[in-house]
Amino acid sequence: MAPSSNNRIGRYDLITPMIPCKDEIMEKFEKFLMSGHYILGKEVDALEKDLAQQCGVAEAVGVASGSSALFLALAMAGVRPGDEVITTPYTFDATIEAIILLDAMPVLVDIRSEDLNIDPAAIEAAITDKTRALMPVPIFGAPCDMDQINAIAEKHNLQVVVDMAQGFGTLYQGRPMGSFGRMSTLSFYPTKNLPGIGDGGMVLCSNTEDAQRIRKIRGHQPVRMNNHLYTGWNSRLDEIQAMVLNVRLARFAGEQHDRIQVAAIYDSCIPQANRLQDPNPGSGNHVTYHQYWVRTNRRNELQKLLDDSGVDTAVYYNPPLNHHELSEYCRVSGELAEAERAGREVLILPIHAALPFDDARKVGNIVGNFLAADAAAAGS
What we know:
Helix content is 38%, strand content 14%. It is of the alpha/beta class. Helix 2 crosses helix 8 and helix 3 (66-76) packs across helix 4 (94-101).
């Protein structure tokens, strides 16, 4: 953990965690450079095997990006033109982009206030004879309620594809989140908990047949399934990215431990009602805190206070995707009151593996004092 500084407290630090990795990466890069094996070599193979084991799936297939992983997983799950995929409006654009690119329709349902994840109670009312799949997103690294989601999927003969871009390391009832769907997808964008130094993604497959098909498609081989011929194209995970990811994966537990400690500092300062709550406490759930969020109906004032105090923050998913330009390709099911509320109230605080604990205490105290004064004023 780096010492506290007098500089601004940034939301990310992509450099400090790389310092202890630098020599190993450079040594491996020199060997790679002189090997002549530049595409789908030993690094990709090793990463696929390790992630399949750690995520509790049969196989993992490295692809060019998290977006490509979503597209391939949905296609192999049988999503075809005219189908519907039920998902959350409180997520990044890529979730619905992959559905739309398959000429299918995203169906947006509301989220839960406690964890900002898709509300299982809202899913069943959204199902029609066109529904093909459910796509939960463990937002900010908090696990979705997969028991309820999978029960609904089984009842209606639907596929489950989990968008795990923010959820590597997340556990639901003691099991890796990536093990609960037919397929799950990872992103290795540099700001993720397991980061590369560019784009990259992975499809986690519960059966080997899906993995075999994706390996063909990513290497320009067509695949025929579901009475449809899927074209192949170039969606290979870069060998250099895999090399960096293998080095970072060996350090993931230590980096994640530091991130969890930052979250614990924030938790000690911030009232439970204003932050993440586990709807199923004591059930073996584990949050990886890709982001740490706080909510208040005076968000703009809190954000300005933090900015004036030298703290960088962010607002995510405001407005939610039902207001996105691509929403003309979507169907909204029911009221999205909680997604709208989250868009208005949620503020993202700095959290990363290199955040000094003193800086975390400073941020936590500013936020906690602001919320305590707000509650006192409301009660007077």
